[in-house]
Amino acid sequence: MAEEGEKRGAKGFKVEDRRRFSAETGEPREAAGAVDSTGDSVETASQEESSRGKAETGERLPEISFSAFVISLSTQALMHLGEIENPLSGKVEADIAVAKQLIDIIGVLREKTRGNLDSGEEKLMEDVLFDLRMRYVEAVKKG
Questions:
Q1: Is beta strand 34-35 parallel, antiparallel or unpaired with respect to 41-42?
Q2: pTM of the full structure
Q3: N or C: which end of the chain has fewer CB within 10 A?
Q4: Residue 93 sits in which domain range?
Q5: How far is Cα 28 from Cα 12, in angstroms, rounded to an integer?
């Protein structure tokens, strides 16, 4: 049966050993030139991470926080309200239904986190929801 696959020119698959430690000795693999059981070189996890890091543009990502999350949702809602341009297309596009859903999601977050936010986060939630709801009403009137 294996011979049939070889006769038809079917390609097999390649198994790469990506473990950081050698299967035989249990010791860490060498950083450069690690070789698996077939004799092929293997890229280690640290090499993979560094190659991914090189592919990035070098820009630092914003801090992950509740406030950053709320602002991210708010920005998406503004984009769908047609207030700011879509960064992918570069065009101002409105989708009022999606904007309403995002505003409602922020409202649900406010209800579920009530009493667990600090004063700054609570004020941010109030301000963002008020602003988005007013912009939504204006967008519905226009449309």
A1: antiparallel
A2: 0.58
A3: N
A4: 66-142
A5: 29
Residues 80 and 115 in one domain: yes
Q: Do 125 and 110 meet the contact criterion of CB atoms below 8 Å apart?
A: yes
Q: Output the 3-class SS for the chain.
A: CHHHHHHCCCCCCCCCCCCCECCCCCCECCCCCEECCCCCEECCHHHHHHHHHHHCCCCCCCCCCHHHHHHHHHHHHHHHECCCCCCCCCCCCECHHHHHHHHHHHHHHHHHHCCCCCHHHHHHHHHHHHHHHHHHHHHHHHC
Same domain, 86 and 131: yes
Q: Are 42 and 36 in contact (CB under 8 A)?
A: yes
pLDDT score of 83: 93
Q: Is the pLDDT of residue 134 over 80?
A: yes
